[in-house]
């Protein structure tokens, strides 16, 4: 019993000495110690340390940019990625974090791998994500380029459309003066040039829709010119007896790209030659 009492007293004095040393180390840093049932002396932890805990400042290098990130010392790399997402605009799945030259997994804790205050971490963008963004950027540039090319064609078609309207006013105005056929041919050729330009535009998405709209517009103008040319060559069609008017329409063929083009009629023309089976024998 006496021996046990001495041991207990000795243990208490050791605890008191260490505690006093903790107080004397730094005035602003007070360390509380506690004795575990097994006899191990450990630093006492408050119940609130797990939720708040000390924070550290990490220097994150991202290319030519540097970020000072403040996070709890016991955070994981996954939590650090979520903080960096707000700073860099990169989603956590698009980030790769390297510490001391090795990539770290999301579930690894900062303090467990040696990350301390003012430690340096390297942020890299995931190559697959970077490639996807590059493809998306190139695609957007192609769409923008297609928009610009379609817009240029639309401007030219607007000018030609005004000339078609002027010809239509002249032909349908009931004047006895005919319009020279060359004017119809020139306008038709100019419209076909614009149609060929539309055929060469590599468009996708909304730009492809806009291209189809212009294609149908050009085709409609060419059909109008064909009708005006036929009516201009037959002035009697301007009278009330319009049933004798000749209607001429261009036949169009639609390709896989959706652009119409001129094409010869697919139905064979009937031959005026009559074939018989009357054979004549020669010597």
From TrEMBL:
Residues 1-20 are annotated as: Disordered. Residues 146-229 form the BAG domain. SMART domains: BAG (SM00264), UBQ (SM00213). GO terms for molecular function: adenyl-nucleotide exchange factor activity; protein-folding chaperone binding. GO terms for biological process: protein stabilization. Residues 1-13 have a biased composition (Low complexity). It holds the Pfam family BAG. Residues 143-170 form a coiled coil. GO terms for cellular component: cytoplasm. Transmembrane segments: none annotated. Keywords: Chaperone, Coiled coil. Residues 56-124 form the Ubiquitin-like domain. PANTHER family: BAG FAMILY MOLECULAR CHAPERONE REGULATOR 1, BCL2-ASSOCIATED ATHANOGENE. This is BAG family molecular chaperone regulator 4. The lineage of its organism: Eukaryota, Viridiplantae, Streptophyta, Embryophyta, Tracheophyta.
């Amino acid at each position: 019993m006496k021996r046990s009492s001495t041991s207990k007293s000795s243990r208490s004095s050791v605890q008191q000495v260490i505690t006093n040393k903790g107080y004397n180390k730094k005035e602003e840093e007070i360390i509380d110690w506690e004795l575990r049932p097994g006899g191990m002396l450990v630093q006492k932890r408050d119940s609130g340390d797990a939720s708040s805990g000390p924070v550290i400042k990490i220097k994150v290098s991202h290319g030519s940019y540097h970020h000072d990130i403040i996070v709890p010392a016991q955070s994981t790399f996954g939590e650090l990625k979520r903080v960096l997402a707000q700073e860099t605009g990169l989603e956590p799945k698009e980030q790769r974090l390297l510490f001391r030259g090795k990539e770290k997994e999301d579930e690894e804790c900062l303090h467990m791998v040696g990350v301390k205050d003012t430690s340096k971490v390297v942020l890299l963008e995931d190559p697959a994500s970077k490639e996807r963004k590059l493809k998306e950027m190139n695609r957007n540039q192609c769409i923008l380029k297609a928009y610009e090319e379609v817009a240029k064609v639309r401007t030219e078609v607007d000018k030609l459309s005004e000339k078609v309207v002027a010809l239509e006013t002249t032909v349908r105005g009931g004047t006895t003066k005919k319009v020279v056929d060359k004017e119809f041919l020139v306008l038709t050729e100019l419209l076909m040039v614009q149609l060929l330009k539309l055929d060469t535009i590599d468009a996708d998405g909304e730009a492809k829709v806009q291209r189809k709209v212009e294609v149908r517009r050009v085709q409609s103008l060419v059909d109008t010119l064909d009708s005006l040319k036929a009516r201009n060559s037959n002035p009697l069609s301007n009278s009330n007896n319009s049933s004798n008017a000749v209607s001429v329409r261009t036949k169009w063929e639609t390709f896989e790209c959706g652009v119409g083009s001129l094409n010869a009629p697919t139905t064979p023309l009937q031959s005026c030659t009559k074939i018989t089976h009357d054979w004549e024998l020669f010597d």
